[in-house]
Amino acid sequence: MGENFFERVYILVRQIPYGRVTSYGAIAKALGTARSARMVGWALNASHNLEDVPAHRVVNRKGLLSGKHHFEGANLMQQLLESEGIEVVNNQIVDFENHFWKPDF
DNA sequence: AAGGTGACCGGCC
DNA sequence: TGGCCGGCCACCT
Q1: Which pLDDT band holds residue A4 (cuts at 50, 70, 90)?
Q2: Buried/exposed A65-82: b ≥16 CB within 10 Å, e otherwise
């Protein structure tokens, strides 16, 4: 049980407020490894076991739901977001910058 | 131990 | 806005 990279990602993702979203790169930057954005995605891929990691609130820099195929249903990720009041059209978050949450450490 | 992989990003056109 | 390209680096064989 140490603090590895994955665990830090989970801790930060858990901080994302309800109804807000952030990006892989923003998380990586907040962790101090701005160039490890790909690892953030990988970490979330491994977060399937965990129940309290809101991975649906993490999208890419363009606001696209690039990870939707890793959720159970074809549109589970979109439904989760819409249930939080976030509009999603064509796999993209509407008014992304307005819903964006900047990770703070 | 070395190489492959990826839910990305930034720059450029 | 969209597409392409190169770099990135922790994790897994």
Answers
A1: confident
A2: bbbbeebeeeeebbebbe
